[in-house]
Amino acid sequence: xxxPLLGPSSLPYQLPDFAHLGVxxxxxxxxxxxxxxxxxxxxIADNPEEPSFDNTIGALESADEDLSRALSAFYVVVPxxxxxxxxxxxxxxxxxxxAHSDAIWMNQQLxxxxxxxxxxxxxxxxxxxxxxxxxxxxxxxxxGAELDxxxxxxxxxxxxELATRRTQFQERLLNDTNDLAVHFSTxxxxxxxxxxxxxLCADAARDKGLDGxxxxxxxxxxHPWLASLTNRASRRRIYxxxxxRGSRGNEFDTxxxxxxxxxxRARRAALLGYPSHTAVRTADQTVGNxxxxxxRIYPLAPAALANMYxxxxxxxxxxxxxxxxxxxxxxxxAPWDWSFYTELLQQERFGLDSADLVPYFELRRVxxxxxxHAATKLYGITFTRRTDLVGYHPDVMxxxxxxxxxxxxxxLLYDPFARDTKQGGAWMNSPVQQSGLRGTLxxxxxxxxxxxxxxGAPVLLSVDHVNTAFHEFGHALHGLFSQVHWPTxxxxxxxxxxxxxPSQVNEMWMTWPEVLLNYxxxxxxxxxxxxxxxxxxxxxxxxxxxxxxxxxxxxxLLDQELHSLSxxxxxxxxxxxxxxxxxxVGLANPYVAPRYRPAYFAHAFGNSYDGAYxxxxxxxxxxxxxxxxxxxxxxxxRGAGETFRRELLSxxxxxxxxxxxxxxxxxxxxxxxxxxxxxxxxD
Length: 683
Prior knowledge:
- The N and C termini lie far apart (68 Å).
- The strands form two sheets. Strands 3-4-5-7-6 form a five-stranded mixed β-sheet. The chain has a two-stranded antiparallel sheet with strand order 1-2.
- Among the domains are: 12-146, Glutathione S-transferase Yfyf (Class Pi), Chain A, domain 2 (Up-down Bundle); 180-243, no CATH class; 359-538, Neurolysin, domain 3 (Orthogonal Bundle), CATH 1.10.1370.
- Strand 4 and strand 5 form a beta hairpin.
- The chain contains 27 helices and seven strands.
- Helix 1 runs parallel beside helix 4, helix 1 (23-45) crosses helix 5 and helix 5 runs antiparallel to helix 6.
- The protein is mainly α.
- 54% of the residues lie in helices and 6% in strands.
């Protein structure tokens, strides 16, 4: 039988036939795809005709169709259902794919043609083609196309090493996260968890052949259950297990990999003529250069830290009062106490127990009556469950989307639950990208990491989970609404520091009254979320924002500090560097650790946010400003939705992204709404 990935799928929307794809299919399709891609590229490079957009850049957009199809399907499966065999194949392929990319971008004949088109007369080219030509020449230069033979050889070797270490990091972190799940003998040690959460822990322990309860870890430093657990020793055990991932000196240790990757990236930057990896990463981003990050993002740290210390003081006062009332000795606030006492302080100040909200956030209602409902109201799109189509795992739900006029829009594969074969966090990716050139409509995958309850039990979400569901669907809309011709401009293929912007805007609909009251209904009675709870939730404002901003900036600025090193500078001991860097940027403190420490910083060392984790708050400048624009232009209205869809979500990277922002808002961005949102300025 022919390999199903080496030609268009016969399934609707060219959905890959995941049910019949095995490891050998992926291997064969990717290897053959690379061969075909190189042959096509060399044919373009050897073309005796004068370079033109059509015979060079336009031709390159078609040259990788088979490889793109295979890789898009494979890299949907790797993070979401990475069995041992799949992860082994990813490790095997990583250096080969890096070498393949280098063989294309460092092809001197090809670069000469790209440069001739990009630097030549572009009269008559459509704006999207002009932008594509500019992006090609920038990408080629950042890939080393202008280097001499010896430097290109060195760069290729570095790229291969980086690719291997990245997959090793992913593998070790997943294994260590699973291995460090915290075992408890009694339910009393987990007092504060719900019956459903205890059931999950009991099932997890049983699956590992253990008695008692097993608490699975999450990707961030702060485990969400720390807010509920009354036993301080149990909170500490979970926190410390989370914080030591990747740094135990065992076979899953990632610290050497992190140091090697940082130093390899610095050497790579020097070969390319840049002072640091951050300079390389920002060269094709909207921020432009690392100096702008230091001017705009670094100064947020002192105000965030000051807010955090005020919050810590209030928490310590609460600890002291409660301990005195109980006749118990006081103790100093520690990181594993923060969430628990913040929850108690929230109850004291606002009368709101976060646990009171959870029964109103059931997964199906949140998704269909919240996330989907908001999209229907804004954009007129509709959703139909397709039980005849399957994904790569039985948990995946498939939805077909249509525009208001009934025309086909695309498919959504929704994968909500955590499992041992799944990486932590939440993300969106696409096994099929929209492209006018290829005649494809989008297929988008959405991944969360919700604990899967026992059969028949409700899937209840925390406030953070609900926010994540709306956030990730913003990415999905960016992919689904794409209306571009060229494949490399499709959907979310925008600069890294712009890609989070549409997803963060979509978070606003979580608390929009019309949307909230449509999905926030008690999972047993169907009663809407009571008005008094809505009012209390709304009154939180900037409560605990000092912690949140300090935690995020700790990771974002640590990423910058690590990737600002020159080849002559050494990371040295990773813990020592981390402590010194946090001191340097003004975020060192005894209470709030970075959201990710380097040893488990998957965004920077297992994903593609290296030197670019600042993107979330940079995008939030645009997001906060756009939330104001929506509010002033009808809110949840078709008019505002159509403008946002037409001018931004549909554009992908077919024009400079900031042009799309300005086409919506009517001007450049204003940072003031962000500062107000995070409590960093006083009105």
